[in-house]
Design goal:
Blueprint (H helix, E strand, L loop, with lengths): L9 H32 L4 H9 L14 H26 L7 H18 L5 H34 L3 H28 L20 E2 L5 E2 L2 H18 L1 H11 L1 H6 L4 H26 L12 H11 L4 H18 L2 H5 L3 H39 L1
Antiparallel strand pairs: 1-2
Helix pairs in contact: 1-2, 1-14, 2-12, 3-7, 3-10, 3-11, 3-12, 4-5, 4-6, 4-10, 5-6, 5-10, 7-8, 7-10, 8-10, 11-12, 11-14, 12-14
Length: 382
């Protein structure tokens, strides 16, 4: 007797995803409502403030996030950094690894790519302009991956928790790069208003921006970020490794019984996260500032945490969340000049919106962790 396979309905296929999208939209709207109430209580017009954030304010010459070519190019620049940061953390969280070390990989990737771009001579012409940036990217990615290989080995071999080790390594990376810049390169540049800077890299290592609307330019690093997204999307949706990552994140004990090398997956995830983090740093040195700036990151490696949560650890969701957070960051800068709102208040409003937006993803992670612990306890009892 043959059983016919039941046809899956549209809701069976996409219902869970639709519900997640509706949940995310609802909490984001609640966040905007809460921010509006706070602004009203502090004596500011919420409608005018949100309009200034996203559409701009002509009176004060502010374009907000989407009010003109400058607003769009600035938002895309922010998006370029946030997308790979969110992906680097999202894949680790999906695999049950609470990696907080992308910021350190980001700094070391940026500095190592600067060293290659500054010290290594290349022939002029099209060959040099292709090889030099490519070599900077390879070195930056390799250094970032090697950096997060350290906490991966400590976790696998010694059981050291990745949250503790990666946070400590973040401090080591940021202060080591600062020390190197101050001792080796700062005498050549001096402390300028932009912060602790190195000299620029060689011309062959500079990737020019792309022309944009209104005579503006947009960094060509956006293309690299989208390529990283494409690789991660394919990895998670179309490869055996992506399936193993999800299995390990759901129940590492069951995954091990099923023949998956959990330690190997852990190391791969941490190193891959470091590779992506290193590339985020390269995007600043080779595609944007053309030098190493100690203050170039306002915490991109940490901002990836709420982005991964808002995106529900889904590559497409992280893509949308990155664009949303980029618009929030750029738009919030318009609040002070357009409305007279203190910077601290605008940061509080932005923080409230992000907090509400990240809640569903946070609850998902907590539920997944509880399910994983219960499954492990049952296996131990057996």
């Amino acid at each position: 007797m043959s059983l016919e396979k039941a046809e899956l309905t549209f809701w069976d296929k996409y219902g869970e995803g639709i519900l997640q999208v509706l949940q995310s939209i609802t909490v984001i709207l609640i966040g905007f409502l809460g921010g509006g109430i706070l602004m009203y209580l502090w004596g500011y017009d919420p409608v005018n403030a949100y309009k200034s954030m996203f559409i701009g304010n002509e009176r004060y010459g502010m374009q907000g996030a989407f009010g003109g070519p400058l607003g769009w190019s600035t938002t895309l620049r922010e998006f370029m950094f946030l997308l790979p940061s969110g992906l680097a953390l999202g894949i680790c969280f999906l695999g049950g690894i609470f990696n907080i070390g992308v910021e350190g990989a980001l700094y070391l990737g940026a500095f190592s790519s600067f060293v290659v771009g500054y010290l290594l001579p290349m022939p002029g012409g099209i060959v040099g302009r292709i090889l030099h940036p490519l070599l900077c990217m390879i070195v930056g990615a390799a250094v970032g991956g090697a950096w997060l290989f350290i906490p991966a080995i400590l976790k696998v071999k010694r059981g050291a928790h990745e949250v503790v080790t990666t946070i400590m390594l973040n401090y080591i990376a940021t202060f080591t790069t600062e020390m190197l810049v101050v001792t080796a390169f700062l005498p050549k540049t001096g402390i300028v208003p932009g912060g602790i800077l190195t000299p620029p890299v060689r011309d062959t290592a500079m990737v020019p921006p792309l022309p944009f609307a209104g005579g503006k330019e947009v960094t060509s690093g956006v293309i690299i970020s989208l390529l990283i997204f494409g690789v991660i999307y394919y990895l998670m949706r179309g490869t055996t490794l992506g399936y193993m990552i999800k299995c390990v994140g759901s129940n590492p004990k069951a995954a091990e019984y099923g023949g998956i090398d959990v330690d190997k997956v852990t190391i791969i995830l941490m190193v891959l996260s470091g590779v992506i983090g290193g590339l985020v740093g390269v995007l600043d040195v080779v595609f944007t500032e053309y030098r190493f700036n100690q203050a170039f990151s306002p915490g991109y490696g940490f901002t990836g945490i709420p982005i991964a949560l808002i995106g529900r650890l889904n590559p497409v969701g992280i893509l949308l969340a990155s664009f949303f957070i980029a618009a929030l960051h750029v738009g919030a800068r318009s609040l002070q000049p357009a409305t007279g709102m203190p910077k601290e208040v605008s940061l509080a409003i932005e923080g409230m919106i992000v907090m509400f937006a990240a809640l569903p993803g946070l609850f998902d992670m907590i539920r997944a962790y509880i399910r994983r612990r219960r499954a492990e306890e049952k296996e131990e009892v057996k």
